[in-house]
User: Fold these one by one.
Assistant:
Number 1:
Amino acid sequence: MASGAQGAKGTLYRGREGMWSWVAQRVTGVLLFFFLFAHVLDTALVRVSPHTYNQVIGTYKNPVVNLLEVGLVGAVMFHAFNGLRIIAVDFWSKGPKYQRQLLWVVVGLWAVLMLGFLEPMMQHTFHEWFGW
Amino acid sequence: MSTATVQEHVETSASGKAGIEMMTITVRIRRYNPEVDAAPHWVDYQVTADPTARILDSLHKIKWEQDGSLTFRRSCAHGVCGSDAMRINGKNRLACKALVKDLNPTKPITVEPIQGLPVLKDLVVDMEPFFQAYRDVKPFLIAHGNEPTRERIQSQKDRDRFDDTTKCILCAACTTSCPVFWADGQYFGPAAIVNAHRFIFDSRDDGANERLEILNDREGVWRCRTTFNCTEACPRGIQITQAIAEVKRALITRRVI
Ligand code: HEM
Ligand code: SF4
Ligand code: FES
């Protein structure tokens, strides 16, 4: 912030859909970066030793990591769909006018696909936790 | 401070016109006097207000009747001069266009300076960096060739092309609502881009390439993250994010249409 005098404890800016979708885009983007970073490392392990690779990948086989995976899919889907929305805002002449409607399309698509993904992705965890 | 502040009662205004429901509101102002305060702090003021009046009237009442040291800018009081942009209930607005009834007066109404420019005192910020960015985009007609002997003729259609961005009153509500500007005060900001747009798309102007080159800077138009805060904040209803996108596209295609 440019001014020292403004300091902490001012109000949070009350931006609307555009501001919060930008916050979400940045948060999911940073999450994706860290995931890819870890993913490059664990995949590179196969060059060290296939056995160690199998061991490390083996530690992922639990419900907690499964939940993280669901979160990853959620983050990727939001980031990708909202990324297309931002491209539309910049390149489609009517994009800025319909940015809010476009965001509801993004959120709707996201919700529907997440619901569809949930069962196949979490089958094993559901079985372990609830005996389904 | 208590937050239950509505004590509605009927007052008769000076002109003898009865029936205006006056109400007592709390205005919570972020105050800062560099000569005595280490940091800005909130101060609450109770004032009687007509719900259909503007929050600027309440600021006047506080300054004139309670604390003469309260400092803010205003001139026209009618949304024309662009002096009184401030952050009211968390959003940038002109105090002279924000009606009390639209600000949820049952709770304290917060008033703070616009963010990202140095606070000089209370609600007054140093606008110089803002105006410097405005000057940097050359906000004046650049025409080469012979001076016409009559006015520079322009079709209605050509005039309409940039009509929206002629409405700017340089209040800085847009630039100081922008998260990119808060984080990076070097960013030209929406207002400078709006005023560049006003000339870039003017058929009488020959300086489009010059201005586009200025906005191609790393602190130029590419900093925009399309948060739409500027568009929501503009008291003139200028479609700012759209104007910025048009400048981005003109830079990519090198065509001004
Ligand atoms: C599915 C493919 C992807 C698409 C379509 C996409 C698209 C976008 C778009 C359009 C933006 C907005 C840029 C702006 O605000 O001007 C963005 C922001 C961002 N992306 Fe992606 N992206 C994708 C994948 C990724 C990946 C894999 C990463 C991580 C390595 C990533 C990291 C980021 C970050 C950190 C931001 C925030 C930038 C900012 O807020 O300024 N993105 N993405
Ligand atoms: S574009 Fe709108 S918000 Fe920005 S300075 Fe001009 S009038 Fe104010
Ligand atoms: S005082 Fe002139 S715009 Fe508000």
Number 2:
Amino acid sequence: MEYYTPESFNKASEIATNAQGITRFLAGGTDVLVQLRTDMISPDILIDIKNIPGAKEIECLADGSWRIGAAVTGAEMSEHSELKAQWPGLVEAMDLIGSTQIQGRATLVGNLCNGSPAADSVPAMMAANASVLVVGPNGTRELSVQDMPVSPGKTSLSKGEVISAVLIPARGNNGGDAYLRFIPRTEMDIAVVGCGVNLRTDGEIITEARLCLGAVTPTIQVVSEVTKLLVGNKLDQTILDAVAKAASAASKPITDKRGTIEYRIEVAGVLAKRATKIAYDRARGLK
Amino acid sequence: MNKIHVSTTVNGDDTEFLCDPRETLLDCLRDKLNLTGAKEGCGTGDCGACSVTLDDRLVCSCLVLGAEAEGKKIQTVEGIANGDQLHPLQKKFIEYAALQCGICTPGILVATKSLLEKNPNPTETEVRYWLAGNLCRCTGYDKIIRAIMDTAADMREAH
Amino acid sequence: MSKFGISQPVKRFENSGFLTGVGKYLDDITPNDALFAFVLRSNIAHGKIIHFDTSSAKDSDGIHLIITAKSLYEAGIVNEMDFDVVTNINGSSGAAPVRPLLAENKVRFVGEPIAMIIAETIEQAKDAAELIELEFSEESPHVRLSEGGPIIHSEAANNVAYDWDVGDKEAVDKIFKEAKFTTKLDIYDNRIIANSIEPRGCFAETEGDRIHLCFSGQGVWKTKEALQKVLKLNDKQIKVSNPDVGGGFGMKHPAYPEYFLVAQATRESGRSVRWQAERTESMLSDNSGRDLQTKAELAFDENYKILGYRLFTLSNLGAYNSKMGQKIQSELFSKVLMGTYDVQSIYYHNRGVFTNTTQFDAYRGAGRPEAIYVLERAMDHAARILKIDPLELRNRNFIPVHKFPYKTATGELYGVGEFSKILSRTET
């Protein structure tokens, strides 16, 4: 295996484009090194992006949007009080991944590129309508997080492409987000169901809404039915019940050691309700 | 295979080693620097027995490559005591019998020291969550938590 | 009252090394020049080995030695591990099929060792393992805790390894027929993996004329005896030691095939040899604990005094008898069968079955926690059925203070006990 520490994303992309054999980018390494260790994947080329300028920066841009470098860790996000105040759901979603030690290394981009249907940060990013900056052999493009997952473990990135940053839209007024996850114990487990919600209100009326579910479909997706239910309405019990029903209906889970199909469908509805309520309260400045 | 030359600081001492790109920081500490305090319990970041700090950030050294240590500052369990003088945390672990077989202890000490440096007044819940990635099969955790809470109280008083 | 006398906490003298990172666990003291051993294991639960060829593996880089069942025979080694058996109800002995160090014709669980590869580096050993040609003819496995199913050993009809009991069945049956109240509880105690944070491991080296085997374990003498027997050495030719051990839990008590193979590898190669399990390997090959299904019945008189206790347990042995395997849910379980209660009429019937899973042996208490768990759950269950306070039910049945020293129904002698007093402390 060869180990590279390029100084720019263009250089990283160039190495990957010209690479023969299995190539992996290394940021936090919490997936790549486990795969290496357990002989699941033995990369020939490993490209460490952590030394690239900007890769470890969290930046609030002039328009109020956020640029989070590809090597920024969960711990660094949790310690950023302004980011946390504006996007608490996103930061909490990232913070739920693994232990303190894992938080010291794991990244949003790594979570996204690993392609797990149960990734915690991805429903929150997707609900926030986040996008990523992709540097490739043909230049740089912006790609919506929604268009990243293709199938379990697969993303829409092609050979030579590397993500340099995550872009989070400006929070704006009267917006709020939330992420909830259910696991069989209190810490250190993988989602049975994850649910991210992001919405905006005008008084009591919801004007924008996105709800995403994790761990209940082969790829993490926006439940568009929920947007239709919420926009233009106040959040009352009838709407919440309808949201739960829509979330359960959108769930196409599998049965495994963490939960059965029936159980996951039920929990998806419960989490959808609760996360929507939290996001609504946050949008209205109640929490 | 190309060996990588790594210059780094371990427990305050400048040091260097040659490593294979696949070798983890844990392997390098144990096999090249003869610092065997960090233990390998799982090799996959689940058990925390290999915990060290890397530029003051708590990590599992089994999930860091040796090559990544270039230019970094590493702290391991060997650096906690000051010569023969045990750190207050180490003394409390003896007093509370917060260890039995001792294999998880280096990781737990490193993790706890890192917590107390960031948060000298943690709640029990905060301590338990902070240590969720440090598994112990002997103690049932309770004595560890009590030793830590008492150490934190003593250290606050000493300030 | 201040603390005095025996059983008071003391500060341990060995702690400071553990706290400063200078503990001497196995991998901390393994000789630097030791060769690496890697174990090729079965990846199927049940089947015949129909093709096995190590010749291209032997020729690969850095390989010193590959130990197989065949090479053990050629070296005059006994390819068998030692274990205890119980005496069946009918007076015969529990089934005693051979437990090989290395599988030869058949494999019976996922993780069963087939060959040990000795190389300069662990990567070379693993690469060579991939070059070993190995084909199975798979058979359907028996993995459920039940009698019957595909036969694992010809010595054990219906996969029943032993059929053991203690107590007077007829007398107890009569008590149940005549009792005022009876209660019945079916209870399952699931399989457990010990998961010591330090996985199993060992190394062997030459010290003058003798072999020194150092393993992460819980005692040396039984392993030394076993090594002498299998490797045909006298007691001057082998030394066995345990370093600091990162968790044993009973699981590290008995000998495992790897220890014999590593000692043999040192003998054959003249070099130090090390083997360290990885976590997945531990999951596959460490002795499991528990996995038993029990039916427990209690008979009471009109004052809720227990008249009799009757149980049947089906327990899992895994694919082979491990050292204590047959004794755990039989003899050891029965030692504390009646716990703290004054009951002399008991009948305990236990049947052990083979399954195509990793073998079972001691784990944290070995049979006794299982027995207490069943008994106390049966007491709680009875209290619910009989609509009596569970503490009251216990108080009525504890061995009274004046009866000590007390001989239990299964022959244990209790010196002292004030169980009501102790229980009362939980009520505050």
